[in-house]
Known about the structure:
By secondary structure, the chain is α+β, with helices and mostly antiparallel strands. Helix content is 34%, strand content 22%. It has helices spanning 10-20, 63-71, 118-125, 139-147, 149-164, 173-176, 178-185, 190-197, 220-231, 276-283, 288-294, 338-341, 343-348, 379-394, 420-432, 442-445, 449-463, and strands at 3-6, 28-31, 43-46, 49-52, 58-59, 78-79, 87-90, 93-96, 101-102, 105-106, 211-214, 235-237, 242-247, 252-256, 263-267, 269-272, 299-310, 321-323, 332-336, 359-366, 403-414, 437-439. The strands form 6 sheets. Strands 8-7-18-19-20-17-21 form a 7-stranded mixed β-sheet. Strands 12-2-1-16-22 form a 5-stranded parallel β-sheet. The chain has a 3-stranded antiparallel β-sheet with strand order 5-11-6, covered by helices on one side. α1 links the parallel β1 (3-6) and β2 (28-31).
Amino acid sequence: MRYLVIGGGISGLTAAWELVQHVDGSQVTVLEAADRPGGKLRGESVAGVTVDVGAESVLARRPEALDLIGEIGLADDLVHPTGVSASIWSRGALHPIPRRTLLGVPADPSDLGGLLTEDEIARIRSESPEPLTATDLPVGELVASRLGDAVTDRLVEPLLGGVYAGHARLISAAAAAPGLLAAARAGESLVAAAARTVPTPDPSAARPPVFAGIDGGLHRLPEVLAQRLTERGVTLRTGTIARELHRTAAGWQVVTGPVPAPEVLEADRVIVAVPSAPTARLLREVAPDAAAELATVEAASMAVLTFAFAATELPDLTGSGFLVPPRDDRFIKAATFSANKWDWVRGRGVGAGPDGEDLILLRVSVGRHREEASLQHPDAVLLDRALEDLAAAIGSPLPSPVARHVQRWGGGLPQYAVGHLDLVARTREAVAQVPGLAVAGATYDGVGIPACIASGRRAARHLLP
């Protein structure tokens, strides 16, 4: 039985890993269009320090990523953020993110002074819960209708934007905030739901970490996973774009290579683990109903900009970074003070400069859904504009960076519009009608790494004998 996985991101690699727990690895082939496996888990060297230029952490409260990290032998390299807090840059100042929020909905409105005005806080306290009848609506609309526009604009938007690079007034509550939606449908106060879900911490009890990473960077997860797959006999082909997918009497044909010189690969079963747009193109002939559904899923483009500064020249940085609400009309949408957030980054930046000086690394993200024009500039322009915003947020001029790097992610994040869960159900139903075919990736069950890992395992199990 020959298996072919189209897409070597974390979903596709996990699908292959699940397959080789049950079948001979020599019967599994993974095709990846990029120059290396890993998708948006990627590392690059900045001033001699290899850092993540895509995702840098996983949600530790879900087991999938931690389980996979353990399975491939990286459990001893698991690390957690330092615990310093992040902020929201709004109204010209940095405001600590309240520790007790549910996707931005505050458990205690009194924690919002400065970020919100007294009138806006009073609006939260005047919430009048009534049972909601809608089965889905945008998260931002749900929160604004209950607690006022300011909560959506100053809290929900930056927090959701950090996950989806999207807009809260377009993202499905059923998909992205099911707890809030369930509370609203039950007639419960959203503030009460947040307080119930995120209780006041016991100062005497250790707080379990929310996020986790890997010493040396999260990009090591796909690197080591790819190595383990190769050791098991899996064929991993990079720089290989799957252009067509056809059914045959014996199974499947995948066409790769340039149009003048195509290469045809054959398989008995196929997992398509690429973003929604290329999946729609590949499925157009073999699963047209699924292709039509996936073609409607929009995606956000964004870029991660990384800077290295000489430590002696950089002003003191407080906290782990900050998020930026779209309402404030800034160029950047988030900044991470990497050396403050991760001990391993601080350690690797010591003495790493070209003249042996200590370095401080920062990263900034730019670009949101339907705002692709903000990225249509040369790298130098993106970097300069980001530095202007960083200086404004920190409140101090910045020195010239020792090094800088731009990583663009075009169409990288699927947008979960209202009705997305139903779209996924219809897509999976259509795909299930085609023997020997499965789909996986961020489009289906969540954009986070644990969700993508679960998606890959699910697809593989669907095709196993």
